[in-house]
Write a structure and sequence with these properties.
With 138 residues, the chain is an alpha/beta fold. The protein contains four helices and five strands, in the order βαββαβαβα. 25% of the residues lie in helices and 24% in strands. It has a five-stranded parallel β-sheet with strand order 3-2-1-4-5, with helices on both faces.
Amino acid sequence: ATVPFASVAIAGLWVMPAVAGICASLPSSATGIALIEAPSAEDVLPFDAPAGINVRWLVRDAGQKPGSLALAELEKLQAPASDTHAFIVGEQSLPTAGRRRLVAQGLGKDRISFIGYWRVGAASPAPKSEQAQPAGGR
C-alpha cells in the first residue's frame, strides 16, 4: 500500500539527522517530498530515502533568511491529500507559517508535526544591551 507522506525540513545541517531518520523509517512504498534548505552547496549531503520520496535541496544565497526558500517552495506545491503527514522543522517562523499554509489548504492539524528550533536574532554572542547602538549610529 502507498503511504502518503509530505515532509518539509528546513534549516542548516543540524536538522539532517532528523530528516534522514524520518526518511529511513518510511516504508519503501512511501511517496512524497522532502524540501531541505542548506546555507551552501557544500552543505548538501546525500542520504537514503524511499524511491517515491522526491528529495529537493534548496541552497540559499548569503543574506537570505533561513527557511525563506523552503517556505516559497511549499507555497508552490498543490494542496496535500487529507491523509498526508507533514513534518516541518527549522527556524521558528518557517514551521509556524508552513503549518498555517497546510491547514489553510485543508490538512488537519493532527497530520502536521512541526518544531521551531531557533529564531533569527534571538541568540547572539553578546547581550542585546551591548549590541544596542545610539540613534544616529554613533
